[in-house]
Amino acid sequence: MHIWHQAVTLEEVKPIVEVAMLHHLGIELVALGDDWLKGRMPVNEKTKQPAGLLHGGATCVLGESLASIASALCVDLTSHGVVGTEISASHIRSAKDGWVYGTCRPFHLGRRNHVWDVRITDEKEKLISVVRMTAAILAY
Question: Which of 43, 88, 108, 111 has the greatest number of CB atoms lying within 10 Å of its CB?
Fold first, then answer.
C-alpha cells in the first residue's frame, strides 16, 4: 500500500536531513518504500554517552526524525504541518561502533495524528531499540 501524499524518490527526500540536529549527528536517509522509510546514524563521539555506548537520546533523535519525515511525506505540506507530540523508546541492547539503522512504518495514519513504529537495528540486524512516535497533523 502506497502511503505517501505524492510520488517521491529517495533522492528528493535526502536533503531534508541537512538541518542542524540531523546533520550534526550524521543521520542519513538510505531507503524508501511504499509504506516505510529507512535511515542510519553513525555510532561515534557525537552519538555515544560517556561510557562509550550509543546514547539513548541519540537513538530517540533518529527515531523521531524518521517518523517526522515520514509523516511530512504523508500530508499536503502546502496546507498542513507535522509536529511530534509523544515519543517512547525501549532500549533492548546498545552499540559501541559502526552504524545503527532505523526503519519507520505506520501504526496509524489519521487526519489529526499519525503513530509510527521505528525499529532500530545494528549492522547485523540485531534489534537495538523500539521507538514509537506520535505526530499531530496541523491544518494551516
Answer: 43
Q: Which of 64, 86, 123, 125 is catalytic?
A: 64
How many Cβ atoms from other residues are within 10 Å of residue 64's Cβ?
A: 22
Nearest to 72 by CA among 137, 20, 134: 137
Report how far residue 134's alpha carbon sits from residue 111's, in angstroms, rounded to the nearest whole number: 13
Q: What is the pLDDT of residues 13-69, one digit of tens each?
A: 999 888 889 999 999 999 999 999 999 999 999 999 999 999 999 999 999 999 999
Distances (CA, A) of 17 to 25, 91, 99, 111: 10, 24, 16, 25
Strands 99-109 and 113-122 turn out to be: antiparallel
SS3 of 31, please? strand
Which residue shows C-alpha cell 524518521?
A: 66
Helix runs in 34-86, H state only: 56-74
Does residue 12 have an active-site annotation?
A: no
DSSP 96: S
- What are the backbone angles phi and psi of residue 53, rounded to the nearest 5°? -105, 160
